[in-house]
Amino acid sequence: MSRKLSLALGAILSFFIATTAATELKVRADYPEVYIVKKGDTLWDISELFLSTPWLWPQLWQANPQVDNPHLIYPGDRLYLTFVNGQPRLSKKKVIKMSPQVRAEPHLSAIPAIPLSVIEPFLKREQVVSQAQYNAMPYVLGTNDGNTRAYQGQLMYGKGEIENAGRYGIYHAEQELRRFGEPEVLGLRMSLIAVADASQHDDLIALTIIKGNQEIRQGDRIMPLLPAENLSVSYMPQAPVTPIAGHVIATHDNLEYFAAHDVVVIDRGREDGVKPGHTMAVYQLGKGVVDDENAPVYVEDTSHYEKLEGMVINVGKLELPSVPRGHVMVFRTFDKVSYALVMRAQQQLQVFDEVRTAQ
Q1: Which residue range(s) make up the domain with 31?
Q2: Strand 338-345 and strand 263-266: pairing?
């Protein structure tokens, strides 16, 4: 059976097993009966105080359907754990009078699902575009003095057309994103390197640099900046409602390995039903082993000659099972890929490890 088919069947089976048991929440033995929310808390942090499966937060949290945005929780809220028909339920009561040490501050923002300080750069400074979109974008030609280091007030020129004069971002293509084991480019990861005031002059674009301290290369793309209202973080930790299976295909720093609190890219996106808040388990990819009669050997350790001659297949290739090693939560989605934060990692994880709907 191929790895892709095994992965898909495994994800579907895991999903139905998890769904069957979804209504039976098990709280941690050391859960607090009352918890006062602090500034800096996240929904994941709070859920993890009560559950070993924090992505089941929607089942634990009892929101008031008559209140706008009932899932929002604020610093100073007092959370109570009770049991209804044997099932744990978490609810809140707003603190009216509190001691000076825990007094809630006015106008505090609702706590996010995951730390904003970690993910904010990836909300504001990165975009993923298709190859066709990339090819159609206006791009940087250069400067009259040949200086590529961006500085405030620098005048550069680009080619193409912009819709309106105004403030634009200059983005560099960091990486081609491909699905595991397939040649198709799912998108190009674009990183903001400078901000400029842009105006059209015939077929040229005049760019006056407002912010930027990185090298701007000829061919870097000129794109509208993301509007702040598109960067919502009002979502909850939750398991996908349908089984999803894929792979981690990149890390934020283009390294092969990653750990807790790193940002990764997975090869599933909006077209696959992925939404912000979706939590997935990361499985360490099972090693391929050649079952040689003399001694088993990892496929990666076989010689180039053996691979060329097909001896790896002829002798008998086995695949060791994948093992769960951590969890990621999606915080931003694109058509074919998503950005996720590593919430847990039992050990160092690796690009191309599998992701599946969390159980």
Answers
A1: 23-113
A2: antiparallel
> Would you say how long the chain is, in residues?
359
- Under the banding of pLDDT at 50, 70 and 90, the label for residue 214 is confident
Q: Give the Cα separation of 332 and 347 in Å (integer).
A: 24
Same domain flag for 257 and 353: yes
pLDDT for residue 99 is more than 90: no
Q: The CATH number of the domain where 334 resides is what? A: 2.40.30
- The CB density around residue 177, as the number of other CB atoms within 10 Å, is 20
Q: Report pLDDT digits (tens) over 35-58.
A: 999 999 999 999 999 999 999 999
Structural contact between residues 351 and 12, judged by C-beta atoms closer than 8 angstroms: no
Residue 342 lies in a domain: yes
- Residue 143 and residue 155: Cα distance in Å, rounded? 7
DSSP state of 119: H
Distance from C-alpha of 164 to C-alpha of 224, rounded to nearest angstrom? 10
Amino acid at 207: L
> What would the pLDDT profile of 267-312 be if each residue is shown by its tens digit?
999 999 999 999 999 999 887 887 776 777 777 766 644 554 455 4
Q: Is 84 helix (H, G, I), strand (E, B) or coil?
A: strand
Q: Which residue has the higher pLDDT, 97 or 142?
A: 142
> pTM score, two decimals?
0.84
Query: Do 86 and 141 belong to one domain?
Result: no
Say if CB 330 and CB 280 are below 8 A apart.
Answer: yes
Which amino acid, residue 316? G
Distance of alpha carbon 189 from alpha carbon 262, whole angstroms: 16
Q: For residues 257 and 32, what is the distance between their CA atoms, to the nearest angstrom?
A: 35
The set of residues, in sequence order, having a beta carbon less than 8 Å from that of 350 and lying 6+ positions away, is: 248, 256, 257, 258, 284, 285
Total count of domains within the chain: 3
| φ, ψ for residue 305, nearest 5 deg | -65, -45
pLDDT beyond 80 at 10: no
Query: With 60 as the cut, is the pLDDT of residue 334 above it?
Result: yes
What's the CA gap between 223 and 170, in Å, rounded?
6
